[in-house]
Amino acid sequence: MAEVAKQDLLVGVDLGGTKILTGVFTSQLKLLATAKLSTKPERGFETIVSRIARCIRDAVDEADMNIRQVRAIGIGAPGAIDTESGEVIFAPNLRWKNAPLKRELEKALDLPVFVENDCNVCALGVHEVELEGKPKSMVGLFLGTGIGGGLILDGRLYGGFNRTAGEIGHMVIEVGGPKCGCGNRGCFEALASRTAIFRRINEAIKGGSKSILPEFLKPGEDLNDLKSGDLRKAIRKGDKLVEKIVEEAAEYTGIAIANLINILNPEYVVLGGGVMDALADDMMSIIVETAHDYAMPGTDQGIQIVASKLGDQAGITGSAVLARRASKN
Description:
The chain is of the alpha/beta class. It has helices spanning 45-62, 101-109, 118-130, 189-192, 194-206, 228-236, 240-264, 274-294, 314-328, and strands spanning 9-15, 19-25, 31-38, 70-77, 80-82, 87-91, 96-99, 113-117, 138-143, 147-153, 156-157, 268-272, 304-307.
């Protein structure tokens, strides 16, 4: 491999409530190496910053490079972000309020750090790498434990007036529906996220419906400990309850996309996240059909609704895109 020039590397960090995933990239966004650590949010802000720094050093070491070859670091963090100061205003999964992530990580590594919302950087990664930056407009929709989104408008990440645009998961699509973690009722996230799917399966089993999911549990576990991949396994084994509830989540997702098409009319809607990684084969045809059924006639013509292929690497890839763009300014 050709020698990487001084300060030619980019580091992308996907910071979540349970894990830190870090990737080292060339300036052409070729992934060289990754490293992963558990987040341990219960240990507090300073410990997490230290663990992020350690994970970055591990990834650079895994790439057989030197930390001094890194040009910039991008981080996708959950919650509301002040992108100017790099402060995490509020991240409940990390137990943070007004956390100066950029400042403290720059102090720890003596390198420029740029912070953005995690779903926004996932959208950046999909747009820049998977779609090669071609669409002028794109909605990234990420279904996992919750549901998040990112908006690309006129080829640029759109943050909105308060820099909080893209909270697609909190679009209300069923008035008086189930309560959401945000406190509202009937949010998209409360109807189609992994958390919502397992909640509905739990309720159905308690009401007497049959499912093989309990057979997947280890001693001391409950259904909330299972993963999206377990839903796929259950469907493959003929579990009609799981199949029905997953299909209903796909229909809600299609309705949400129809609303986005009517309002934003993006060239692409790209779906990602853990639920889609595991269940795209079961959900995508229903999502696409429902979106076209509910979109206003004519508004959906030519719009591409596709599943992302970046999978678990969307966050680190988008964070590296953020680092590359921000360090050029």
